[in-house]
Amino acid sequence: MKTVRNVTYELLRRNGINKVFGNPGSNELPFLKNFPKDFEYVLALHEGVALGMADGFAQASGKPALVNLHSAAGTGNAMGALANASNGHSPLIITAGQQNRAMVALEPLLTNTDATTLPKPLVKWSREPASAQEVPHAFSRAIHTATSEAPGPVYLSIPYDDWDKRADESSASLLNRRVKNARSLSSDELAELVQRINTAVNPVLVLGADVDAARANHHAVELAEKLKCPVWAAPSSPRCAFPTRHACFRGMLPAGIASIGRLLSGHDLILVIGAPVFRYHQFEAGPFLPEGSELILISSDQQEAARAPVGDAWIGDIHPILSQLAGHVADRAKAMPDALPAPLPVAASYPLKAESVFDILNSVAPANSIFVNESTSTIPALWQRINIATQGSYYLAAAGGLGFAMPAGVGIQLASPDRQVFVVVGDGSANYSIQALWTAAHYAIPVIFIVMKNGTYGALRWFADVLNATDIPGLNLPDIHFSQLAEGYGVKAFRANTPEQISDAVSRARASGKPALIEVETCWTEQGEKQ
């Protein structure tokens, strides 16, 4: 007899899913019974860490990831991580165990009441199957919904007694289904876009995370080099879609309406690809576009296209559209832009400045390293100092929710075993998901965690100045010993307060082939979170 469990695991297998990220509870045990030997269960100590690891794995691998949460409480524990995954277009299949189907109406202990509503609006689709026989179909729909454009999390609530029930014979038809995304521009659409780009006198590109997610970075470079135009990263971009040392690159746009308008002034065409228009943060009154500018958005996300306050939008798959544009726009007969000057070296001091730490990391990290950042007050310094040259080399919490970087770094390292992952966190953000250290140690996942310890919430201090808010309580974080916490979770720890000590610690960590944490005393500056 084929059970619902048998068919579901085969469906997952056929769709390239063989890892389950989770922290099991009683409602989830029947799903995990007789766990297949070709699957791996990645245990987290907290559901937010489980979902964060799955988020990182899905983004880095480009494949869907399965997360198993514990009913309503586990879903609640993971909601902050779910906000980041939703904003990051991460294809997650999230399952939560439900009480026995015969008792759900009585709302006993561990019932997920109104389960399909609980994760909204952070999921693309949610479902509690009406019968055990519907479970494989719900999984099939969940997988294809999560991975279709624009990708994103989906949620299934499954009564725990469903798994041993007989599967419907028709479920076999689900195993070989494929859903392909192939929305490129029609010939008329392509001709219109190319004509508008070619007639622009001074165009500019603004690239978002979806370019990197679509693995279309090389097409973005080709397009920029044909246009000989400046390229900006979209405000608060959670990924990097363009080489940061390229002559065309100008940095990351700030997250204010007026500031963006000032920096894009003089460009008659603003071509935004793979980003919302725009992800603002601090309020700055001003026009959405500079005078004399028009905007074109190319997006895979219908919602992002619909809510843009200005400009025309084309909805489709980023990779084929960028390839089409790069292949058809005119190659302009003018010089390339002058590259930005290299940042000036910073004198070593104690405590070290963030710029010094990033200079050291840039010199000792392998060329194809991956940086996962959650030291929010030092984002501008990292973008200036770290050479990000290849696809999938930079990740940030897409919704700004703290607790992303440490578990995501573990998931990214799992998906990218041939690259070194560096997780850079502030002492504020590190406390949100420190349990990720245990998973890294338990599975010998060789992430290097860098804790930038400045004893305060630096980004909040900067934003308090923006708001002209003084005497704010709760911004200092004294007396936290991250090296001791790391060792308690089984991770080798170093304290490094000079360039030489950091370099030595990175070298020893890499040589060990195991995870390590490097605690660095840094000074807080008023540069702040100028995203």
From TrEMBL:
<protein>
    <submittedName>
        <fullName>Benzoylformate decarboxylase</fullName>
    </submittedName>
</protein>
<comment type="similarity">
    <text>Belongs to the TPP enzyme family.</text>
</comment>
<keyword id="KW-0812">Transmembrane</keyword>
<dbReference type="InterPro" id="IPR000399">
    <property type="entry name" value="TPP-bd_CS"/>
</dbReference>
<feature type="domain" description="Thiamine pyrophosphate enzyme TPP-binding">
    <location>
        <begin position="384"/>
        <end position="520"/>
    </location>
</feature>
<keyword id="KW-0472">Membrane</keyword>
<dbReference type="InterPro" id="IPR029035">
    <property type="entry name" value="DHS-like_NAD/FAD-binding_dom"/>
</dbReference>
<dbReference type="GO" id="GO:0000287">
    <property type="term" value="F:magnesium ion binding"/>
</dbReference>
<dbReference type="GO" id="GO:0050660">
    <property type="term" value="F:flavin adenine dinucleotide binding"/>
</dbReference>
<dbReference type="GO" id="GO:0030976">
    <property type="term" value="F:thiamine pyrophosphate binding"/>
</dbReference>
<dbReference type="InterPro" id="IPR012001">
    <property type="entry name" value="Thiamin_PyroP_enz_TPP-bd_dom"/>
</dbReference>
<dbReference type="InterPro" id="IPR029061">
    <property type="entry name" value="THDP-binding"/>
</dbReference>
<dbReference type="Pfam" id="PF02775">
    <property type="entry name" value="TPP_enzyme_C"/>
</dbReference>
<feature type="domain" description="Thiamine pyrophosphate enzyme N-terminal TPP-binding">
    <location>
        <begin position="3"/>
        <end position="105"/>
    </location>
</feature>
<dbReference type="InterPro" id="IPR012000">
    <property type="entry name" value="Thiamin_PyroP_enz_cen_dom"/>
</dbReference>
<feature type="transmembrane region" description="Helical">
    <location>
        <begin position="432"/>
        <end position="452"/>
    </location>
</feature>
<dbReference type="Pfam" id="PF00205">
    <property type="entry name" value="TPP_enzyme_M"/>
</dbReference>
<dbReference type="Pfam" id="PF02776">
    <property type="entry name" value="TPP_enzyme_N"/>
</dbReference>
<feature type="transmembrane region" description="Helical">
    <location>
        <begin position="394"/>
        <end position="412"/>
    </location>
</feature>
<dbReference type="InterPro" id="IPR045229">
    <property type="entry name" value="TPP_enz"/>
</dbReference>
<dbReference type="GO" id="GO:0003984">
    <property type="term" value="F:acetolactate synthase activity"/>
</dbReference>
<dbReference type="GO" id="GO:0019752">
    <property type="term" value="P:carboxylic acid metabolic process"/>
</dbReference>
<feature type="domain" description="Thiamine pyrophosphate enzyme central">
    <location>
        <begin position="191"/>
        <end position="325"/>
    </location>
</feature>
<dbReference type="InterPro" id="IPR011766">
    <property type="entry name" value="TPP_enzyme_TPP-bd"/>
</dbReference>
<keyword id="KW-0786">Thiamine pyrophosphate</keyword>
<keyword id="KW-1133">Transmembrane helix</keyword>
